[in-house]
Design goal:
With 107 residues, this protein is α/β, with parallel strands linked by helices. It has a single domain (2-91), classed as 3-Layer(aba) Sandwich (Rossmann fold). It has four helices and three strands. It has helices at 2-21, 26-34, 53-60, 72-82, and strands at residues 43-47, 64-68, 88-91. Strands 1-2-3 form a three-stranded parallel beta sheet, covered by helices on one side. Helix 3 (53-60) links the parallel strand 1 and strand 2 (64-68). Helix 2 (26-34) packs across helix 3 (53-60). The chain is globular, with a radius of gyration of 15 Å. The model has no long low-confidence stretch (mean pLDDT 90).
């Protein structure tokens, strides 16, 4: 059962990365969308950063950013892709409408 769960997680992660990074037109579209709001030195918050496609765009615009992502697998990907940048802060946290505790995520 554990192997099945691991395979399903890997397939889901691969699908997310393909959808977020596989379309060569997407970065340009996102840059045009966010350029009026974010520029060199501004601060953006990506709540639920998922695979980080907005992070890629916001970095290209020169923004500093805080990315919040509770899912450990996705956070590991974000660390690999963006963890070396001083202008990027990665936070493993869930964000909700009220204070409290979410059920633990599978490690």
């Amino acid at each position: 059962m554990a192997n099945t769960h691991r395979v399903a997680r890997a397939l889901g992660l691969s699908r997310s990365l393909g959808l977020n990074y596989g379309n060569p037109l997407r970065p340009g579209r996102l840059t045009r969308l966010y350029a009026p709001f974010l520029g060199r030195g501004t601060l953006g918050f990506d709540i639920g950063a998922h695979a980080g496609n907005r992070m890629r765009c916001w970095r290209a615009l020169g923004a500093r950013l805080v990315a919040v992502e509770p899912e450990p697998d996705l956070l590991r990907v974000l660390h690999r892709l963006y963890g070396r940048y001083q202008a990027v802060t990665l936070v493993r946290q869930a964000v909700g409408a009220a204070p409290g505790q979410a059920p633990p995520l599978d490690e």
